[in-house]
Amino acid sequence: MEDAGQLQKCPGALGRRPPADRPLAGRAPQLILNYRQLRERPEPGTQADSELTAFCDILVDYVSAGHFEIYEQLLREAQDFDDQRGIELAHRVYPRIETITLQAVGFNDQYGQNAHADDEAAMQRSCSNLAACCMNDLSLKTV
Length: 143
What we know:
By secondary structure, the protein is an all-alpha fold. It has helices spanning 2-9, 18-25, 28-40, 50-80, 84-111, 120-138.
């Protein structure tokens, strides 16, 4: 799907500062794979939804392992080098990190527990919105 490519770009959006990207780098390929499987799957039956469960699991891991670590590392590096522009960047990035984190946690809260999407179309829209949020809120091209 088209937004799978957008999600794939998300982890690299912070790639301008490679050390800060490391917490997410190892998890990004698995997140993207699970996202694609979820978006491209046939509509699930009534059994437990393994694609949705796998995606929610890696999504929560991805967010908890990296987003706020990136902010802290950007800020720490900027302070260590007395880089005022870097400090300002870190403070501008924080609300964006918070936005995508809240979106991801909301998706997991809605679909992650005993995963089964009662409304597949609504879940797919939420999944697509999550990818769009990631692209819009973590892209540093506009920062």
